[in-house]
Amino acid sequence: RLINGFGTGILNAIVPVWATETAEHTSRGQFVAIEFTLNIFGVAVAYWIEYGCSFYQNGESAFVWRFPIAFQIVPLLFLFCIVWIFPESPRWLCKVGREDESRYVLERLREDGVQSTGKAEAEF
């Protein structure tokens, strides 16, 4: 539980900031609201799974605590596989002196691909 709680705390600190940095200014609030809604949904699912497992063999089996932890691994494996295609944070790239990469990421996120609208450069 300690490791899971620590990981959840890190995700709750990082994901909203990253989402606001990579989203358009008109949809930032929606992204953060969706993230927190999904987080609350995940907590509710975890509580119901623990509640359901507590009835297995009168709660005296190792399954009662092992299954809820193991159940969390499936979404984590999915996240681990797709996180490598997420763009880096433009703000972090600037902070560590990688301004060209930051501009590139902003252009990929803000421009429509056909013609430059100047949104990326204005935000930079």
Summarize the structure.
The protein is mostly helical and 124 residues long. The protein has helices at residues 2-22, 28-53, 63-71, 73-82, 90-95, 99-110, 119-123.
Derived structural class = mainly alpha
Strand content: under 5%
Give the % helix: over 70%
Major sheet attributes? none
- What is the tally of helical segments? 7
- Oligomerization state: single chain
Rounded Rg:
20 Å
Instruction: Give the averaged pLDDT, no decimals.
Output: 81
- Taking the alpha carbons of the first and last residues, their distance comes to 41 Å
Shape: elongated
Q: Stretches where pLDDT falls below 50 for ≥5 residues? A: none
User: How many β-strand runs?
Assistant: 0
Compressed to H and E, one letter per element, the order equals HHHHHHH
Question: Could you explain how this protein is built, in words?
Answer:
Helices cover about 70% and strands about 0% of the residues. It is mostly helical. Helix 2 (about 30-55) runs antiparallel to helix 3. It is elongated, with a radius of gyration of 20 Å.
Give the topology, please:
Blueprint: H1 2-22, H2 28-53, H3 63-71, H4 73-82, H5 90-95, H6 99-110, H7 119-123
Question: Notable features of this structure?
Answer:
mainly alpha; 124 residues; 7 helices; elongated
